[in-house]
Every structure is written in structure tokens, then in C-alpha cells.
Amino acid sequence: MVKEIIVLRYGHRPVRDYRVTSHCCLVARAFGADKVEVIGEKDESIENTVNTMNKQWGKGAGVEFFDSWRKRITHYKKKGFTSVHLTMYGLPVQETEQAIRKFNKLLVIIGSQKVEKEVYEMADYNVSVTLQPHSEIAAMAVFLDRLQEGKELAKKFGGAKISIEPVAKGKKVNKK
Amino acid sequence: MVKEIIVLRYGHRPVRDYRVTSHCCLVARAFGADKVEVIGEKDESIENTVNTMNKQWGKGAGVEFFDSWRKRITHYKKKGFTSVHLTMYGLPVQETEQAIRKFNKLLVIIGSQKVEKEVYEMADYNVSVTLQPHSEIAAMAVFLDRLQEGKELAKKFGGAKISIEPVAKGKKVNKK
């Protein structure tokens, strides 16, 4: 059963990629990942967004920037992580999820710009979510939901100052 | 059983929202929606992206721009659609999906900027995908995957010039 999930976002350009990378970080956090690592130029606006979220909405995955994807993948391989690269060229998620669910520690790699060939080679699994081009944000969300069989949807975030009470109409927000 | 899915994207600003709105359109298409309607200023760059995708990768959902979300929601209500607004304030997807799956025609509303109160009132269902702030792209993908119980993952797109043959490593692309 999966106990630890690290998301590695391959590529980030400050300003230009701010919104897409912040969607990636917030989705990883909301869907129960333990940490996000972004390969690219350090971007304080992303760090601030994620830190603010963790302060307000409860403690979830933080974000850290690194220069080399090769070093980070190698680092996690040495620590016993199984690496899953999400790509539309890979094997369908519905055929691979059951096998992947058995590992304890997962490194989930998601691209942005063109991903180098070596990533496909280094990854233990290359997994597709549909065989169509769409969005790394969507692919990661669906993969994490299937991997955890929906258990992540009800995850509680410790130390939250704001929390939501689900309602059929309107908004109900509890503040501490 | 759901037979027709229209995605209504509430809000779009040209240039600034290009990437996020195009992710929304491509995810809706890849996950089997029949059409995307965007409320906002007509944006040819989005139309071109979606049209090119449909020509190259096979016929899926197209996109059309409209001025008034109120008129479009009313239009679909009159045509017998059940409307589902995805919002983190709504009832959890895991508790509502079974009921929603029974309808034939669905209008799935996804926000971007702040959504007006009236949308919450007009929607037949307000549905949350986790109770955390994250991404409308991710919320839509997970909702559409759960709604269709994964059947959309293997959808074939007619008339494709390019298609992918899933492989464990690397890329295998078939071109006509």
C-alpha cells in the first residue's frame, strides 16, 4: 500500500509557468502527496502560494526547487522509491494501477515542456491517463485518485485555520 | 447512464488565461465530453488549439464562446440537462457520483475567477472534489473519470491522423 508520495515536476519557468505550476502543487497537496519538488529556477511566488495554503488550510505537501531532475530521480531510486512517469505514451493507468498500488514509496514524475528520453528510461513505469494530449494537472489528479482509491478525497489537514463544511447550496466555511 | 456531457467554463480572459483554459478544453475533450462552452471574450487562439487537436488526434469536443453564463445554463436546463457545478464548497463527489450517474444529459460547470452566488443556486448539484482549494482542471478530470467509471480512458477518437500505441518505455506513434 502506498505510504509516501513525492511529486516531481519536470520544468518550471518563473512568471510564464506560475499558474500551471501552482495548480500542480495545489493538486498534489489536495490529493495527499507528501512533497512536491520542482525542477527549474527557484520561484518565490510559488513557494509563497504553497506556504500560505499550508498555513491557512492545514499542513500538506510543501514545495522545494532543484536544478537537476537526474539527481533527484537517482536520489529517490536509492531510497527505494518506485518511479512513475506520467506520459500519454505510457501504459494505460487502468492496466497498471493495481501493480503500482503495491509499492510503499512512489515518485510521481510529471512533465511540462518536452521531457528528455532518459526520463522514460529511468522511470520504473511510464503511465498514460488517456492516450490523448491534455494536461499534466489532470493526469496527476486522476492518477493519485485511482492510486489511493478515493481515500485521499476525505483527507484531513492538521492545524487548519479555515475548513469547509460541505453544503448542497452556497458556502459554509469554518474559521478558527 | 450519462450519454451527453457539456462542459461550461465560467470565465476566460484572452492571453492571461490561455494556458489554463486550453488545459480545460483539452481535458474535457480527452475525457469524453461532447462540447466545451467558454463564457468570456472570444479567443481565436483557444479555438485554433482545440480545432488542431481534433484534426490531428481525432474528433472530440469542440469549443464555442458565449457572453452570458445565465443564458447558457438556462438553455441547457430547458433542454433537460442536469447541471453540476464543481466547487470546493459542494457535496463530496464520492457521495454524489452515484446519483449523478443516472442522468442522461449533464452540464458540468467549472469556475475560474470567483463564481457568482446565483450559479450555486441554479445548479442542480454543487459537487466538491476534496475540500481543499486546488484546480478546476483537476476537479473536472476526476469528476469525469468517476462519472464514467473509467470507460472514457479507452475512448477512440474517429478520423485521427496521429494515434499512440502504449509502450512501457519510449514513444510509439502511428501516423496516417
Automatic annotation (TrEMBL), chains A, B:
Per its UniProt entry, what is the enzyme's top EC class, as one word? transferase
As one GO molecular function, the record gives:
tRNA (cytidine(56)-2'-O)-methyltransferase activity
Superkingdom in the source lineage: Archaea
E.C. numbers: 2.1.1.206
What Gene Ontology terms describe where this protein resides (cellular component)?
A: cytoplasm
Gene Ontology terms: biological process: tRNA nucleoside ribose methylation
Question: What subcellular compartments does it reside in?
Answer: Cytoplasm
Q: Which chain regions cross the lipid bilayer?
A: none
Q: Pfam families attached here? A: Trm56
What does the annotation say about its assembly with partners? Homodimer.
Its biological purpose is as follows:
Specifically catalyzes the AdoMet-dependent 2'-O-ribose methylation of cytidine at position 56 in tRNAs.
Output this protein's name: tRNA (cytidine(56)-2'-O)-methyltransferase
**Taxonomy-wise, where does this protein's organism fall, top ranks first?**
Archaea, Candidatus Iainarchaeota, Candidatus Iainarchaeia, Candidatus Iainarchaeales, Candidatus Iainarchaeaceae
